[in-house]
Amino acid sequence: MRIGIAAIGGSRASQLEWAWRVALAALLVALSGCATSPAGRMEPGAQPPGGRAGPKTITIAFPIDPTALGGSMSGLGAAAVPSRYFREFPNAYLTTYNAQDEPVPWLVTELPSIDDGSWKVLDDGRMEVTWRLRRGVKWHDGTELTSEDLKFSWEVSKDPTTAVAPQSVARFVEAVATPDPYTAVFTWAQASQLGAQAGVREFDVLPRHVLQGAERAGLLDNPYFSDPGVFVGSGPYRPVAWEHGSSITLEAFDGYFLGRPKIDRVTFSMIPEAQAALANVLAGQVDIAYWTVSYEGARIVQQEWAKTGGGTVEMQANNARHLLPQLRPDYASPRDLVDVRVRKALMHAMDRTELAETAAAGAAQVVNSTTYPDSALGTAVEDRAIRYDFDLARAAGLFAEAGWQRGGDGLLTKGGEPFQLRYRAGTGNSDANLIFPVLQQQYRRSGIDLVLDLASPGDLQAEATFPGVWFTALPDNQTGFLSRFNSALIASAQNRWAGTDRNGYANPAADELLNRVDRTLRREERMEVWAEANRVLVDDLAFMPLYNYPYPYVVRTGVLGPTPGNPINPPSYFVHAWDLG
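Structure (tokenized):
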């Protein structure tokens, strides 16, 4: 049984009422469970008395359907991170990340290495990466996975008409050679640090024998990507049923190359409402909740489980919230947003500690980058980052330098125009709306009229031509940082507003550093270049850093393996080793 519960608004009073209703729902379910016969109801993950007499099963609460069983990772919006988590169940990739966020081999025997020559830069500036597959890897239908599958996957991903993986690293690869069934040599157009990364974000591995005869144009619409009866993966679990908007059921694949999964069946239960997800966790209806219980709800679970030993709640602040200021003079309002003195004044007028506490008290961390502070990269970047302390006097001085003076009503004016700033907030980040009244009050003290602008999802032109600042986010330590501020990728009418540089930032010095981050292959050297690139960007305020926001990962006691979760990438690595105990 899955519990439903009505949504309630965001005021403090309504949050208390919501918590009471959630607790009541959990109590009712508990009482109904007590009323059944002893054999009539079992907690998720529990096994029958006297040892294992039935299949081991777990239920994972999920906020949204994954976009597909495999294939494209572009244009996902709110489904992006949950989709990545899900796909490591039915699919296997060349690489993945372990609990320490270090890349590890998966379908391959080892990672390409500069030291042994399997990853090298050629004399003409191109790059060659050699992947060596494990032998005996089987697709779900028993066919062996070979290097020809890798070549086919590259061809499909590179072909823009398929729409399967437009953001795949395949677009940077010029050719793939297959000297034998277990070796694939990727020749890149230029050197890139992405060369040895081929996981769920970077490169899908597709079955050539299933899809080679399919029409390439619009391939993503092929039933393979959405119908469990057609899909053939290489991961530890086979999807057997998908009731869209409700659940996906997967069963252990007996022929999985790393050994049959220890858990026999996994069900993803779609629970988009955070309150309903919390009620299901408290009532014992789910074993794991991923990106579906709110921060406030997770605190309630922590408190309850601290009394009972009910499980673990990990809350790693790993999503970098920031404001993008509009930097195109034709769209910026006020036009002085293009003046770095005004952007710096806006930063000094902001109390980011108060904003972080409002968003997630005790868990959100003020940051000066898009990195995870406790990681090696985060340490290197934050040590060199520019910092903007809350300083109203400094803000007032910078505004005055730019020609802004307070009028009789207390608002800043210039040339007779008041300083009105539109704050664009989408629907995917709840804390965007939560912090708005706090930021509005902070800015009012400096003479700024902050106005809420609720955004419609999916309008690329509106995303690029917003007039003020846009509340948005990036997963920590991800290479999306490189493309968000590269002037070669500015969104415009010429590229149908699809460029990843959404706010029109252009700085040749920053471009060179961002390109160097991508071209630098050795990790320690790359971190140093990344730190300098971030210093330049934050000094120029290409983005206005706020805080890292936590997404709770809730795991019930008795489910072994999901924790500790990867603090940065989805924690679904090597799910075949998860067990019940």
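Residues 317-550 form a domain with the Dipeptide-binding Protein; domain 3 fold (CATH 3.10.105.10). The longest strand covers residues 317-325.
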